[in-house]
Amino acid sequence: MSIPTPTPTTQSKESVTCPMDFILRMLMGPWTTYILYNLRTHGPQRFGELKRRVSGISAKMLTERLRTLEGAALVKRDYEATIPPKVTYSLTKRGGELDEVMDRLAEIAVRWEAEDAAQRAARAAEARAPENLGELRAAE
Amino acid sequence: MSIPTPTPTTQSKESVTCPMDFILRMLMGPWTTYILYNLRTHGPQRFGELKRRVSGISAKMLTERLRTLEGAALVKRDYEATIPPKVTYSLTKRGGELDEVMDRLAEIAVRWEAEDAAQRAARAAEARAPENLGELRAAE
DNA sequence: CCGTATCCCCGGGGATACTG
DNA sequence: CAGTATCCCCGGGGATACGG
Predict the structure, then answer these.
(1) Is A16–B105 a contact, with Cβ atoms under 8 angstroms apart?
(2) What is the pLDDT of residues A49-67, one digit of tens each?
(3) What pTM does this model have?
């Protein structure tokens, strides 16, 4: 994966190992959030379906990500040996446990965006009429 | 950054844009969690201090990450033009707002780890005395 | 001390072609 | 349909050296 780890050799005894790192490394994987998000909102679905939805992803990448997620027990793979074969992916119970956190994150993201927009608006207004400064700014 | 984005050109109108993506891209950045974690647990600190703590990171990388975090208003940079110069980094209010989510994540991570350990133990026991199966397994 | 500038290298990931 | 196998390329990031 592309996320550098503290080099094992360089790893000092004072090295910081935050527990959530594992999960973040998971979520952090390229495309991962898109995949989870899709499985959440559109429910269990087949490989091709997922690939179509996560637009731009390559088959190689999608496979690799799904395998990793499966390994972490966040995603379940159902293989039906029909012809043509049918493979369905779905969130596991454990995968669902991330919903809450993801919701919180989404919520924060939305709020920040709104705050930023307000800031920009305030700044624009201030540029036109530079009286009463500071009250918005005070929030940092 | 190393996290692939759906190629803009390939981006379809059905493209999935989950709101938290921005934040995750932020947290996701290499080393980022280590940096935030350190700022949280050891408080405001200077560049070199931080670099020493986040063992293995290069100056280039640390600078780039801090700049990005600063740009996202998660981290504050205090420059004191003494000789030698003194630069202190700290979490902003906004940066602190991630604490809750990070705590939740850490909590989940710890629980999963415990569950996995329990599973392994159960499996080992089962290998020795294969009676009463199923109850742990049933949890998926 | 806190960075930028430069070089260079490795491997992650896309494209393509092919199988069960 | 759901992947693997192969090739190839680009840029992310470390190491090093230097500036304010």
Answers:
(1) no
(2) 999 999 999 999 999 999 9
(3) 0.78
